Amino acid sequence: MRSIYRDFDSQAAIDAQYNPSLPLSDPTEPDRHYSGVAQLARTSLHCVLDLPYGPTRAETLDLFPAAQPQAPVFVFFHGGYWRALSSKEFSGVALGLQPLGITTVVVNYALCPHVSLDEIVRQTRAALAWTVRNIQHYGGDPQRIAIGGHSAGAHLCAMALQTAWEQDYGLPQDPFVAALPFSGLYDLEPLRYSYLQPQIQLDEGTLRRNSPAFLVRRCRTPQWITWGANESSEFARQSALYQQAWLAQGNRAELAPIAAADHFSVIHGLEHTDSAVCRWLAQQLQV
Q: Is the pTM of this model over 0.85?
């Protein structure tokens, strides 16, 4: 049988790798967890919600300032395969970081198919440019900003690192001190043959412009590229492919999975101050 992508000969085979809900006994549990800890964060932590960073209604971000001035900053982009969820389900990522003295920014963006993937990437860059230019007004240090994201958000994080920040935005070319992408999609081609295609509508141009594994530039930002050890082999392959491309440009990146984590629990460490991911961010941000 003729393959449609690498060794995959059917959409079902690709979906089995890229639909992380399929192995779950209760597919509603991850959303319940995210929503519960998000509500806890918004009620227990100081926060400033729905700050606009762009002209459209979806272009907002939620800010969880640290108590002390000149705090380092972590900017997080949520997952949902670019067509689901919002910043509000992911307020919980601030729970492990704010007690460490790290200000957390959770970015909202418009979703496919109402907008294109190119537009979501533009909004990603707009949110980060806003943060670099304005975070000092909320007690943050613009010289100590790390970025990260989960799943589709990890893809957006990777696309942010491809940006010509100096040429296009008048900012330092490498404005971020670290990046932490979780379970990212860096080669988008297999998704064109998946259950996601009717909503995300990938074509050749979109793939070429938005597959960061094939777009890496020289960049001084170090990364920890990670995924859940219990995820499908394609998520591990995607992460390894991206790290290889990143290193090939002379950049720095660690590659290591989160033990005993699946696609949804891989970011739970951000909820706990003593987790490996919070400790890594604190070290990179010189807390």
A: yes
